[in-house]
Amino acid sequence: MNLFEYTISELRRLLVRKELSPTELTEALFSRIAEVEPKINAYNYINHERAIERAKTVNVDLPLGGIPIAIKDNINVRAEPCRCASKILEGYLSPYNATVIEKLIKAGAILVGRTNMDEFAMGSSTENSATGLTKNPWDLQRVPGGSSGGSAAAVASHEAFCALGSDTGGSIRQPASFCGCVGLKPTYGRVSRYGLTAFASSLDQIGPLTKTVEDAALLLEVISGFDPNDNTSEKMPVPRFSELLETLSLKNMVLGVPKEYFIEGIDGEVREAINKAIAHFESLGAKIEEVSLPHTPYAVATYYILATAEASANLARFDGIRYGRRSKHYEDLLDYYGKTRDEGFGSEVKRRILLGTYVLSSGYYDAYYLRALKVKEKIKQDFSSVFKKCQALLTPTSPFCAFRIGEKSNDPLQMYLADIFTIAVNLAGICGLSIPCGQSTEGLPIGLQIIGPAWKEEVILALGHLYQKSTGWKPPIPPLEKT
User: Fold this and answer.
1) Is residue 76 within 8 Å of 195, Cβ to Cβ?
2) CA distance 443 to 186
3) Catalytic residue at 94?
4) Catalytic residue among 86, 129, 151, 171, which?
5) What are 111-164's pLDDT values in tens digits?
6) Are 443 and 140 in contact (CB under 8 A)?
7) Is 72 known to be catalytic?
8) N or C: which end of the chain has fewer CB within 10 A?
């Protein structure tokens, strides 16, 4: 087996036993990147020299000692570009490390590069990128999902052993589903957002994309924890996935299946694969119970009011004065601001800024924004009620498999519906996990979403791991010869 096919857990054993050096591993990964990257375009930036220097001195006895990792292009790494896949941040170099980066470095990880994404994390296909679109490793004519499409494609194509992404409304889980890898959205407040370029501050959360659930759990343990630099960070114990595995029994577990997630229009092959996965959990001893989350139909509208409102405020800082792109032709200061932002932002970012500014404007604030906040609370209450009788929920991650490049780019509303099954998790501030559970007849991955209560990541990770272990899951190699 080629080195690039190994999981983090397998590589750790080789590194600790000195059967493999961090330098050999990193060079092997760069060879894989050189071979595959021209077809995929998963990376916006690669720092070969810096990674090799780090590999020569890293302590392999640390939790991630010697493991190369890719980072989404909206997470700050000192002295590296943080473009958020936008023209407006051309030439910007980060002066500091995000808290998650400090934790990864302390754990011995090797940072190899920055992955492509939808501009400022706004999108569901990674087509909204100023650095070019990323392609799905399973079919190069299809999107990898978004906004963490570069991270998901890198992991799925074995250009990365693991990667960090960010999830505002499904931006880790949906691309994980499209690309056939594991994606975890932690509970809001579990992982520090300090150093993450904000899209919607009340919804954003950093999380891992990996080849296996076991690897996701290992990465989560490293990046979790309270951070005084982030006022939304919570003082909660770091989840210990390995400890729960020793005691977890599906025989006493109730798993809910929300009827609102099996709606008309869901792809038939997706429905079939999810039903088979649910039946598999039942065969392992779990009790399956249909439940209702009645406010689910309002989740998409609620999300796009709240997220765009926060985005319009967060992106006001990008004005060409302090950093980033600057317009060279303008008449006065107001014209300078307008032209800089017009030249720097892509169409989807402009669309969301306009929508967010509208819902926050005088006369519409009460009608839209405040009402959306009330619905958000109702959605949170729906989950709280269901979790009184269920330990976790089983749903599709996406209603369909990866769609073709350009298929939905001219219809924003259809694109927004790609996250219909993931958005409510962010609105409720709880945790969700996407794992591969099958393939379509065209060979496209299908993702199962496991949703858990707040601060119960170890439960959904244990469920995902038991599923992968009992089904004999092995990370496959995609057929990259498709054009």
Assistant:
1) yes
2) 29
3) no
4) 171
5) 999 999 999 999 999 999 999 999 999 999 999 999 999 999 999 999 999 999
6) no
7) yes
8) N
